[in-house]
Records
---
Amino acid sequence: MAHIEQHGMSRSLAIYGLLLELYPRPYLQQHRAEMLQNFQDLEQETPSKSALWLFIGRDLLVSLQSQFTRTLWGQTAMVVLVLAIVLVYTEYHAAVARRHPTEACCFGYILGWFAGWFGKQWQASSISGVPSYIRSLPAQAMIVVSVLGLVIAVAGVGSRTQSHVIIWTLCYGFLLAWGPGWLGSRRQTRS
């Protein structure tokens, strides 16, 4: 069933070989030849290309999930997906007055997520010239709370305008995400 190209390799096998690059290098060094041979056998036995690629797609998703969720981009993709669902829900089910604070909270959450992630990376790095007690979780938490307090104070806490509500929700989203960003990065640095 496999269409053999001039060089003896099917187009599907070439594409699968490229997809294998998604796997971690040590895993590929040990299993690449076996995976390519298994694909070739499966390609010859499967009557339909679509059935073959559905199976391969599902297998790749399951196989790569654990590796992908340990990376910054993997965890960020999950956060962005959840925030996108929140925004879509808000767009269709909330009043216009609540939509802008929700957007601000999501934006603050993304900023807080990256701040927490990179804060943990900074704390874990031993090459930084900053003393370790300043890079610690309590010190970074105090810095984050102080900066957010300053942003809120500069924005004028006493006023009840829409822009102040947006500043509050942006800071709230930032604070909500900073801890999970720190912990998500902590999981990655342990692996």
---
Amino acid sequence: MLRIADQPAIYRRGTEVLPAHQGRGLYGFFTTEILKAAGVSDNGDADLLYGWRTRNPIVWAANARICEKVTPSLLGGAHDPALQAACIEMCSLLYPGKALEIPGMIMRGAYGHIKHRRQAYRGSASLVDAAMQRIIPDSADALLTVGIARV
């Protein structure tokens, strides 16, 4: 467990679900179990900062859904200076020397080694995809996001 902004924090990295198993709720199940193991509960007695880096709209939407608020907010949430500071701190801790463009929390070239293949998205993922296409049209770029997790 990390400590970011004097709070417990988790950084989600590298969870992949094979295409044959996508759409079955496995990513959400893994996420819930990770948060429960970290002591997050739905009674709101403790905040846990939850961070992730992605350019995948489904992953971004799934992770944002379990947070009270996030930065950057792609779906119209209010700007939160404390979360922005936590995002900057998380980036400098986990990716020393890697530039983070503020306020968009963009990491240029993060995925230069892979090619993101766009697809037809539904629900909130389609809105996130539209925002990502405006903010990070290069498939090598990613967003670093931090939120306050809840289960």
---
Amino acid sequence: MRTARLLFLAAALTAVVALPGMASADPGGSKVLDDQLTGLPSDMTGQTLFGVTAGGIAWRLDSGSARLFADGRLQVSVHGLVLAAGGAEGTNPIPNAQAIVTCAGVPAASSSVVPYSADGDAQINETVSLPDHCLAPAVFFAGVPAPGVARWFAVSGW
């Protein structure tokens, strides 16, 4: 009986000590995606991937990343995401962009539209509404040339 009581006390103390550490190590939900982005290659232009249509010309990217958390927090950063070909090569002619999250190969959430500089820089840091389970998430960075129209220029998981 004394051994059982000691084991229970030891387990209870372990839980009291460990739980605050777990909560502080994982505030707001676990990370479900932490990946680099890749610019749109020329062989994917105009194609649809996971229900998201690609831009009509290749894009290159100096650096880009996407992080998605189980609670819907989404952090996307692109630097130097510009046209890789054509007369406007090296520039970004689209002033607005958004992130699109897919789960199990289907669009599941979109960020709000954010400014996207002529140098190809943009930041997204907001919370999106995800389904209860987001299997195989991917994040697309999409230019928004007109309201309601989005074309991806960079994607995670490539």
